[in-house]
Amino acid sequence: MADPGAAKNNVVPLKERPCPQCGRPAVDRFRPFCSGRCANADLGRWLSGEYRIATDEEASVDEDPPEDL
Ligand SMILES: [Zn+2]
User: Fold this and answer.
1) Cβ < 5 A residues, ion ligand 1
2) Mean pLDDT (whole number) for 17-45
3) Is residue 30 included in any domain, yes or no?
């Protein structure tokens, strides 16, 4: 009882990864997004700094100033 269609169901090809913005299937043209809109939205976030990694505040290193005479 081999059903050729059944095996395909649990394998998701890499190129069909969902759009990181909205989770819809990505479109080749806008990969990895599903549309230009999602791509732009993502870019906008980058530009506005939402994606910034939490290195905003540098650790203050002024507890022991070097004594160079
Ligand atoms: Zn999308």
Assistant:
1) 19, 21-22, 24, 34, 38
2) 90
3) yes
